[in-house]
Structures are given as C-alpha cells and as structure tokens.
Design a protein that fits this description.
six-stranded mixed sheet, 5 helices, 21% helix, OB fold (Dihydrolipoamide Acetyltransferase, E2P), alpha+beta, Elongation Factor Tu (Ef-tu), domain 3, six-stranded antiparallel beta barrel
Length: 368
C-alpha cells in the first residue's frame, strides 16, 4: 500500500505535524481544569438565617416514682402470708405480709422470764442496799441487769414485729416476699427488699449532669421528656433539685457528675416508672435573631476576635468581626455593626463554612 505522505514535500509534512500538535493542545486546554490561581480557593458556603434559637442539654435516665421505699423486716421469721401483689395501691401503715407469730411469742416469753427474774433480783438488791446489807457495786450490777432485760422486753412488740407494713402510701412495684421463707431481717440477711413501694402519681428522673454543664443548670428550668413508651408524644418536667456535691461518673474515673432531680408532669400520658427516657433541659432561648452554623465562626487564636467571611456576588471575601450570643446545638446567634451602628450582616447572605487560616479579606474564592 502506498504511503499517502510519500509525495508530500518535507516542508508540508512539517506544517501538518505542527498543526496536529496545536489541535491537540487546544483540546487538552479545554479538558484540563483551570488552575487554582484562576478559580480561587475552594470553599463551602452556608447562609445567615433569622429565627428563634434555644440552648438545651439532653440526658437519659430511668423514670421512677417521686417517693419510694424498700421494705425489709426487722425480725427474721418465716412469712405466713403475703397480703398484696404488684400493682396494688397501699396506704401508709398497711400490712403487706404477716410473719410466724409463734416464733415471735416464744422469743417474747423467754424475754419475759428473764425480765421477771431480773426485776425480782433488782427489787431484793434495792431493799438490801437500803438496809446496808448489800454493797453499792452489787446493787448497781443488779440494776443494770434489770434495765437491760426491760429494754429487751420492750423491743418485742408482737403486733409490730409480726406484721410487715408499708412506710409510705403508693403502689407496690415489686414483691419478693414468699410464703414459707424467712423474712431475712437483721444482720446477715438478704439485701433484697421484701417489697418496693413507689409513689407513681408523681414521677421523676434523677439525672447525672457533667461538671462541665452543671453551671448552666438552675432550679426551675423546664424540660421536655421523651420516651419510647410515649411514641411521638412528649411530657413536661421541671428541675426541682441540684445536689450540692458531685460524684465520680465511673468507678476510678476522673470526670465528676452532679445529681439533678427533674419532676415530671405526665398528665394523661401513659408514661410509667422503670422505663428509660430522655430529658431535654431548656437552658436559654432567644427569638428573631440572626444565626449562622457554629462552624462558620472563625476565632483568631492570637487576639480572640471572632468573625465570619461573607461571600460577595462576585465570589470575593469580606471578613466581618461578629459578636457571639446564644449558642445552640448547631447554630449560634451573631450580630455585627459598623461604627455608625448599621448592621453588617443581613439575612440570606452567603458565608464560608469551616474557614481556614489561609482565607483573607478580598480573596477570590470558588464555592463548591
């Protein structure tokens, strides 16, 4: 096959090759991205907004009754009967269980015999001492034995010790007492209460607030309570108590937390004790203010000055010093004015997000 360039002059061949190179260069120039110098620094943009802003702290904890009591027995005797079940509403002093009175009676009779004997000995000793026929030390010994036996006998209140009663009014939320088993009162007994009584008409949450946030918490602040059992519904609460002392968050940990009590107004909701809920405490709120995303604020570490970079219509930057107000979870309140008091920020203005140290006033940028 003949070479199509065989009969073309050397000069023409050279022109053809040069022309091809030019065409390739032109194509490449369109494909190759513009240099950073021509397009400016790449930045992400946000917007100055106007609206309401609130600062909150959210903490999870367990909902419980506002008043509760773990009920134990003062006497370690067998349980004859249990008179309540979980869910029963009881009054203060109501009998929850009855213990074996025979055992109590036997103990009382033994104490009564010891008391009677000690009293006779004391009466005789007193008479002899007054007649001078008994030493003072022997008399005092007899008196001490009598006083001890009298105190022991008085502790055997059969009616009181044979019945386990509720110390508060409320709802029985746990029944661990079982007929035939020992009541496990006194030393060496089980740490598990026989009954748990809670006031479920008034619910509360005991939350642990970090030492870094406790300065923002005040008695009387409102809270919004949410939980799985409530679905899309929420109920309100109020901070009712702040502990005067802190405690370690974890055993061996260095971070301290402060116990805070939130009283809950459950209203007609189906919120119950024993479920996990989230309390969102309202720290502060403002209305109708200018806000920007928190990461739009640039703080100069050398001066502490805070500012934002406004992006103009021709994509150049204007650095504007700003005053920071209330800070929310994602946005913060800002304000800026010149010497005459005219506002330097307007709603809808574009601003740089996460500004870097390389940005400067008047710099050209490209918004991603």
């Amino acid at each position: 096959m003949k070479n199509p360039l065989k009969n073309v002059s050397k000069k023409k061949k050279t022109l053809i090759i040069i022309g091809g190179i030019v065409v390739i260069c032109i194509i490449v120039s369109f494909i190759k991205p513009k240099s950073d110098a021509s397009q400016g620094v790449l930045v992400s943009a946000g917007t100055v907004s106007r609206g309401n802003l609130s600062q909150t702290i959210s903490i999870k904890s367990t909902v419980e009754g506002s008043d509760s009591a773990n009920v134990f027995s003062a006497a370690n005797y067998r349980i004859n009967s249990v008179t309540v079940k979980e869910g029963d509403v009881v009054q203060e002093g109501q009998i929850l269980a009855r213990l074996d009175a025979d055992d109590l009676t036997d103990e009382y009779n033994k104490a009564k015999i010891s008391y009677d004997e000690a009293k006779r000995n004391y009466d005789n000793s007193k008479t002899l001492y007054e007649e001078g026929a008994l030493s003072q030390s022997d008399y005092l010994e007899a008196k001490a034995a009598y006083d001890t036996s009298a105190l022991t006998l008085s502790s055997f209140n059969i009616t009181e010790n044979a019945n386990v009663t509720s110390p508060i009014a409320g709802t029985v939320t746990r029944v661990n007492a079982t007929v035939g088993k020992l009541a496990n009162g006194g030393s060496g007994g089980s740490s598990e209460p026989l009954f748990v009584i809670e006031n479920l008409d008034n619910l509360q949450m005991k939350v642990k607030v970090s030492e870094y946030d406790i300065g923002k918490i005040k008695v009387g602040q409102s809270a919004t309570i949410t939980a799985e059992v409530l679905g899309d519904v929420s109920v309100t609460g109020v901070v009712s108590h702040i502990s005067p002392t802190g405690e370690a968050r974890d055993a061996g940990g260095s971070e301290m937390v402060i116990p805070v009590v939130i009283d809950i107004d459950k209203g007609e909701s189906n919120l119950i004790a024993g479920v996990t809920a989230k309390a969102t405490i309202l720290i502060d709120e403002v209305a109708d203010v200018l806000t920007v995303p928190i990461d739009a604020v640039f703080e100069d570490p050398s001066t502490g000055e805070t500012s934002v970079f406004i992006i103009s219509e021709n994509d150049t930057l204007t650095k504007v010093p700003v005053n920071i107000g209330l800070e929310g979870d994602f946005d913060t309140e800002i304000s800026a004015a010149d010497e005459s008091g005219s506002a330097l920020l307007t709603e809808g203005a574009r601003i740089v997000l996460a500004p870097s140290y390389e940005l400067a006033d008047g710099m050209a940028v490209t918004v991603m």
